[in-house]
Design goal:
Layout: H1 3-10, E1 17-18, E2 27-28, E3 59-67, H2 72-90, E4 100-101, E5 121-126, H3 128-133, E6 164-170, H4 173-186, E7 191-200, H5 231-237, E8 249-258, H6 260-264, H7 268-275, H8 312-317, E9 325-326, E10 329-336, E11 341-352, H9 355-369, E12 376-386, H10 398-401
The structure holds protoporphyrin IX containing FE.
Length: 402
């Protein structure tokens, strides 16, 4: 039953109230009316998990979890429940039975009642510790290991690592939070929260022109991404195509604090030189349009490179052959009590088929020379293998346990 219908069914009130003879089994029963089509549904089932090449929604709620059981059958069990529950939530449906006992906690925590599907996607990943704890190291992909340390890393344990992750994205922040909350609740006793992050982009309502979203430094962020509508580009850069991870991908998450107060005192010319792009249009310096090619060798009349060699774009682009798919969100978490400035920045999330061949070389170049490092610092880091997509009737991680 859709969440909107639950509210209506709730309104049936006494007509549907059935008191058990013993008094011990009070049940509110009603007949679920045929599901009305909900708006904004992104299919959960498919060859790939949603939330990777899916158009980014407005809000993110990200949770990194620790596995507290070493029993594989318990893990399989909650992965099966997560599968069913995530599928229902992405259709905007309430979780659990239509009839609920007044003597038990409700199956659904209820805060998303009345809200539609909101394009919810729930994406699941497993970290290196997952394989170690479950004695599955023979299945642990070579790609899935902790990242090396990079220059200027200032990682904190409280923002790093995790055995499992849940990335919930939705156009409504309450729908995204509801998804993570209920999934964690279902696996209670088997998983524990390690760290979480709520984050946002511009809202689509306000963005009538569907422009590339801007980060908290005011620059368009995502322009250089590979084309998510191209199967060959996604096969080249994102989807794993062999072994149990076929149809999966690797995710890198970095919690990057941005010193917005310092940035706000920086001249526009310097800001543009830092990114190697114009702020207004998003075009590479010296070009007109956002999607004009990045030519790192293009020179001005004096023979100087138009896109500075130490700019973020020049270094991240390199020779343009290795690409990652970035799907980051901004965060603003009150203040950094040590400095009294905003604790705000980017929850950088990238997907790639090889962390060692794609993310690490790019991040090494950035960490060593990027002008952007004057204005940012990496506080958290985690890597996950995002599981292959699930077919109807199957469950998350099926190919791993097969
Ligand atoms: C707070 C941190 C960061 C900010 C604010 C930021 C912002 C940007 C901006 C504004 C662009 C230019 C527009 C675009 O192509 O999307 C860009 C490009 C890019 N960034 Fe970042 N970025 C950050 C961190 C990172 C990190 C950690 C990586 C790690 C590998 C990275 C990789 C890239 C790549 C691959 C490109 C595209 C380059 C190209 O081929 O043109 N960024 N970033």
């Amino acid at each position: 039953m859709s969440r909107r219908n639950v509210l209506k069914a709730g309104g049936i009130g006494a007509a549907g109230l059935l008191i058990g003879a013993s008094g011990a089994g009070s049940l509110l029963t009603f007949t679920a009316s045929a599901d009305k089509s909900s708006t904004g549904i992104v299919p959960f089932y498919g060859s790939y998990q949603a939330g990777i090449t899916t158009d980014p929604q407005n809000h993110l709620y990200f949770a990194s979890l620790i596995l507290t059981t070493m029993d594989t059958s318990e893990v399989k069990q909650f992965l099966k429940e997560w599968t069913k529950t995530a599928a229902m939530m992405t259709e905007g449906k309430s979780i659990g039975k239509a009839a609920e006992s007044l003597l038990l906690p409700p199956d659904d925590t209820g805060e998303a009642s009345g809200l539609d599907a909101s394009n919810l996607t729930v994406t699941f990943g497993v970290g290196p510790g997952f394989f170690q704890k479950l004695n599955l190291t023979s299945k642990q992909p070579k790609e899935l290991k902790e990242l090396p340390s990079f220059s200027f890393d200032a990682l904190e344990e409280k923002w790093s690592g995790g055995d499992l992750c849940i990335q919930a994205c939705a156009d409504d922040p309450q729908v995204a939070f509801h998804a993570v909350r209920n999934l964690v609740r279902i696996a209670r006793g088997k998983v524990q929260l390690k760290w979480t992050q709520a984050a946002f982009q511009r809202t689509k309502q306000a963005d009538t022109k569907s422009e590339t979203p801007r980060n908290l430094f005011g620059f368009k962020d995502g322009t250089g991404n590979p084309d998510t509508s191209s199967h060959s580009a996604m096969n080249n850069h994102v989807w794993v195509q062999n072994g149990w991870m076929t149809g999966g991908t690797y995710m890198v998450v970095r919690r990057v604090q941005m010193f917005i107060e310092v940035w706000d005192r920086t001249a526009l010319g310097e800001q543009e030189a830092t990114f190697g792009r114009h702020r207004d249009t998003g075009a590479p310096i010296g070009s007109e349009n956002e999607f004009d090619p990045v030519d790192v060798n293009k020179k001005d009349v004096n023979g100087n490179k138009l896109i500075p060699a130490n700019s973020h774009t020049a270094l991240a682009h390199g020779d343009g052959k290795k690409k990652i798919l970035r799907r980051s969100y901004s965060y603003a978490d009150g203040l950094d009590t040590k400095t009294g400035s905003f604790d705000a920045g980017l929850l950088f999330i990238s997907f790639q088929k090889s962390i060692s061949d794609q993310f690490i070389p790019i991040q090494t170049r950035l960490a060593n020379n990027d002008k952007l490092n004057e204005y940012t610092i990496h506080r958290g880091s985690a890597v996950f293998a995002c599981l292959p997509g699930v077919k109807k009737g199957g469950y998350l991680g099926e190919t791993l346990f097969y």
